[in-house]
């Protein structure tokens, strides 16, 4: 089994400082095999915000798979937005926009969906899909394939479908051919886990989508600060959602969802969702 801590939408520049210490300590206690950060490390892509994000991330365990989000591209500086869109991200965080982690149980690949031509939307292109095929398609079947993006490939039922990453059907076709199991994302500041079966009608294939809320931002959009702990086995995934307890000043498990794989189809386990403490 492999354990991933899935953080997203940190938004340094609009961070609730009270959360940083407890989150740091809890991540170390969980002792994940991989820490995943699915974008929006900063609020406005400023140098000092990237410096703060980098300093805090360096206190967490590794390896780390980090991808940028739309907030990591300058919004108001037109020159920097269009000519140097991720220059500061690459300078302070990592110059690898599509990082990978492989071991004998999991393969985790980050894909950059942030684009300078849109304010908040994201996209994948043909070159990125080709890279996914090259890196993931030929792996042994027992290795669980995980793709990390900022923008989601699936959404809760109530969400605006415009938030989906552009060219999602093209990428989903590659995912089905490569047997991609798990799609981790953020962007919405809302937690969600589920199968892609309802949105994408693909013969004998459905991936598992896990979306994280905002771990540390003050912009909660009606949901408490939260993050995911994803426990991966070959045919089973458990997703623990940790939320911030404002009275206890700790992150605690709020819910757990269980998913099983049959062939290339992931679906919720019949007893898979229960609220913590019930």
Automatic annotation (TrEMBL):
Signal peptide residues on this chain, from the entry's feature table: none
Superkingdom in the source lineage: Bacteria
Residue stretches making up the Calcineurin-like phosphoesterase domain: 4-190
Organism: Massilia soli
Name assigned to this protein: Metallophosphoesterase
InterPro entries per UniProt: Calcineurin-like_PHP (IPR004843), CNP_phosphodiesterase-III (IPR050884), Metallo-depent_PP-like (IPR029052)
Similarity remark: Belongs to the cyclic nucleotide phosphodiesterase class-III family.
UniProt keyword list: Hydrolase, Iron, Metal-binding
